[in-house]
Design a protein that fits this description.
The chain is an all-alpha fold. The chain has a domain at about 60-135: DnaJ domain (Helix Hairpins, Orthogonal Bundle), CATH 1.10.287. It is about 75% helix and about 0% strand. It contains 6 helices and no strands. The longest helix has about 35 residues, at about 5-40. It is elongated, with a radius of gyration of 30 Å. It starts with a helix and ends with a helix. One of its GO terms (cellular component) is TIM23 mitochondrial import inner membrane translocase complex. It is a peripheral membrane protein. It is found in: Mitochondrion inner membrane.
Length: about 160
């Protein structure tokens, strides 16, 4: 008996909400398409593909070298990386009481370094050892040069 007025009030609330959504959703979709066309849909897809899942960042090459206990001075070869990978995987075998977490770190480090070596071989067309990249080295030399420039200018001013 009291259902009639309650249903009428509910219907009066639901119908306008549905009407607003029916107009707003297609308009929002059209606007999103226009934005994608302006910015280039491929660029958005690339950015989404590079975004880390659940806020996790990808392992860096430096971290991969540290995990597999490889030095920067040593040239990377697929054989050397594989040897270190197998050594650490065997030492941390789960059936022997090892850590699955560490095994996953070794696996990802091996995967990253093998991909890096393969990319370098395709770029250069060689099959020999690959020297690891050191992005911080350029920044360090630039900082040293600017420090040297500023100290030499200070010395010249003191001499005057």
């Amino acid at each position: 008996m009291a259902v009639g007025p309650f249903a009428r009030i509910l219907a009066q609330l639901v119908v306008p909400v549905v009407a607003v959504l029916a107009r707003a959703l297609p308009a929002a979709y059209a606007q999103a398409l226009q934005n994608a066309r302006k910015a280039g849909g491929a660029a958005a897809a690339d950015a989404a593909a590079k975004a880390p899942l659940f806020g996790k960042k990808a392992m860096s090459q430096q971290e991969a070298l540290q995990i597999l206990n490889m030095t920067e001075q040593k040239a990377l070869t697929p054989e050397a990386v594989q040897k270190q990978f197998e050594k650490f995987m065997e030492a941390n075998d789960v059936s022997k009481g090892g850590s699955f977490y560490l095994q996953s770190k070794f696996y990802r480090a091996n995967e990253l370094l093998q991909d890096y070596i393969q990319d370098q071989h395709t770029k250069t067309g060689t099959t020999g050892p690959v020297a690891p990249t050191q992005p911080d080295e350029e920044e360090d030399t630039q900082q040293q040069q600017s420090a040297n420039d500023s100290s030499s200018s200070e010395q010249q001013q003191q001499q005057k």
